[in-house]
Amino acid sequence: MRLVGVELRRAFARRLTKLVIVVSIAGIVAAGLAVYFHSNRTTAEISPAAPKIEDVKNRAIQDCVNGGSLDFPTPPTALPPVGSAQRAGACQNLVDQLQFNQAVDKRFHVTQLADVLQHVSAFAAIIAWLLGSSLVGAEWRSGSMATLLTWEPRRIRVTMAKAFAAVVAAFLIVMVLQGLLVGALYPAARFRGSTAGATNEFWRSLSYLGLRSGGLAAGAALIAFSVASIGRSTAAALGAGFGYLALVEGALLGALVPSSRPWLIVRNAVVFITDRRGFDVPGRSPEQAGLLLLGYALGFLLIAALVNLRRDVN
Amino acid sequence: MAVIEVEALHKEFRRLRGGRTIAVDGLDLAVPYGGVFGFLGPNGAGKTTTIRCALGLVKPTAGRTRVLDAEANRLHTVIDRIGSIVETPTFFPTFSGRRNLRLLGRVDGIGAAAVEQVLERVGLAERGDDIFKNYSLGMKQRLGIAAALLREPELLILDEPANGLDPAGIKEVRQLLRSLADEGRTVFLSSHLLGEVQQICDRVAILARGKCIAQGEVADVLSRGQAARMVVKVENIDGALQVLTGAGFDANVERDEILVTAPASDGARISRTLALKRIYVAELRPMEVSLEDVFLQLTEGGS
Ligand SMILES: Nc1ncnc2c1ncn2[C@@H]1O[C@H](COP(=O)(O)OP(=O)(O)OP(=O)(O)O)[C@@H](O)[C@H]1O
Ligand SMILES: [Mg+2]
């Protein structure tokens, strides 16, 4: 449909979109250079550290076997009880996962890319929220929405075309930026760090993580778009978004109504990205969390489309 | 058949703290095909609201509108035959005028050549690459007219298109609208400057407080005022007044002029009557009736 094409062009021609892309690329280049030069340790510097890594690891395993409190990303309940025969093996596994060598070995490991993408995903979602809400908020503010509606009066079509443009723009931008980020960091691992663990399996799971990040950004853009459509302003969507996530989810529901936790946006987003099945929503897979978030986003869009169907446009 | 039909249109806006504003109050309107139709009324009369209803931007509280035989909910079937401006045209502020038009055109598969043509026609071709935000009010208005022309519409609905234009611009727009009408399009033009549109309109409707108080051909609406009068200027006003009333004329003094209720064809008789008494006419002319006068009379009578 031509309207969709027009909205996509409009989305990419916007100043904010260009600004986000330019600033992000500058940040990525800076990060690539910083990591490249920071990851400058000779093997001579590392080898004396090797025994130390073993020491730290052994101490951590011993601590775990004795039931010490671990602030590790695996729920303590998932381990066999203290004193049981399986405890030592489980502790060994747990500590192995923690990549202690990276704590001592300051070189950049290619496997750290997964961590990087996980952290970047929150940032990407915020950017997507901003893009999605301002895409439609700016049009209501400037009044150009009214002009468009005198050109295409079918409001559902207009809303859907714009929503589609917001989603596609957010997804594409986040995917490309992640690609650039991986590309910018890879030389640090390849030439001045370590590429150990860069198996096909690793790259496959990294790609899947990147895809989920792109999906999260698309969802954030869609919800922000819908809220901004209902409030007819960018500021409304930004305020409502941060107010809701921080106050309602963070403080009220999350803390006071534990039974609401499996349905909260932030917790599901964390599960969706990190795949930490134990913590935020026990037993929920990233795919389930993603479906739930998709449902929310479509729900918001539906409400936005219906609300704008009959309202006066000035 | 009418291009725009408005039947018993009623629109109320709720105010924030209770109360309502009645913007349009049972309006009936029939705009025939062809020519320039003036939709006139003072500020707040409800012109823009009526246009918004007709274009589907605002939902009437009661009543209905039909444009090119399409009900409001079927507007999309005829929208590509309508070009419109509602209040001050609004476009995407950080895009150039040209890009704004190209984006709109693209929705309909209208190419860049057509965009250049309309920019040329409204005199914006040279400033087409400036961003919309930086346009002067008159340039925004011109871009709005350009957008309205982009689809080569058979009906133009223009809400105060001359707003913000300089005298030369107003004249240009007037000529443009006239030429559009001469091409066979219908131009529906709203304005609060009644004198402004009197010259180019074939028909007018006068709106006050949401109601239509006069509608028809310009000449008919004008003659709805009082009977024709002649303005007489002389040195000896009192003497002249006596002579004229003595001769059976209905005359009275207003400031330093005498107003005689008589058609322009009585000019010779007036001048002869006065000359016979050695009173010589310094100025003798028919009093011009403007839509403004008619409007003031009609609204004064109504309130
Ligand atoms: N969105 C709105 N909310 C509340 N009141 C409104 C709204 N739009 C218009 N009105 C009111 O409706 C009345 C008619 O306004 P409208 O804009 O139709 O007048 P107009 O004839 O176009 O005037 P102007 O010549 O100044 O453009 C005014 O009293 C106005 O305050
Ligand atoms: Mg108006």
Structure report:
The complex is a heterodimer of chains A (314) and B (303). Chain A is an all-alpha fold and 314 residues long. Chain A is built from 13 helices and no strands. In chain A, helix 7 runs antiparallel to helix 9. The longest helix of chain A is centred in the middle third of the chain and has 38 residues, at 155-192. The model of chain A has no long low-confidence stretch (mean pLDDT 85). With 303 residues, chain B is of the alpha/beta class. Chain B is elongated and about 75 Å long. Helix content of chain B is 33%, strand content 28%. The two termini of chain B are 34 Å apart. The longest helix of chain B has 16 residues, at 167-182. Chains A and B meet through helix 1, helix 7 and helix 8 of A and helix 2 of B. Bound molecules: adenosine-5'-triphosphate and magnesium ion. Magnesium ion binds next to helix 1 of chain B.
In this entry the ligands are: adenosine-5'-triphosphate, magnesium ion
Helix content of chain B: 25-40%
Counting helices, strands and paired strands, the structural category of chain A is: mainly alpha
Provide the number of structural domains of chain B.
2
Biggest β-sheet of chain B, characterized?
A: 6 strands, mixed
Secondary structure elements and their pairing?
The complex is a heterodimer of chains A (314) and B (303).
Chain A: H1 2-13, H2 15-38, H3 43-46, H4 50-65, H5 87-97, H6 100-104, H7 112-142, H8 144-149, H9 155-192, H10 200-231, H11 234-256, H12 265-274, H13 286-310
Chain B: E1 2-14, E2 20-32, E3 35-40, H1 47-54, E4 62-67, E5 70-71, E6 82-85, H2 97-107, H3 112-121, H4 137-149, E7 155-159, H5 167-182, E8 186-191, H6 194-198, E9 203-208, E10 211-217, H7 218-223, E11 229-233, H8 237-246, E12 251-254, E13 257-261, H9 267-276, E14 283-286, H10 291-302
Parallel strand pairs in B: 3-8, 3-9, 6-7, 7-8
Antiparallel strand pairs in B: 1-2, 1-4, 4-5, 9-10, 11-13, 11-14, 12-13
Helix pairs in contact in B: 2-3, 3-4
Magnesium ion binds next to helix 1 of chain B.
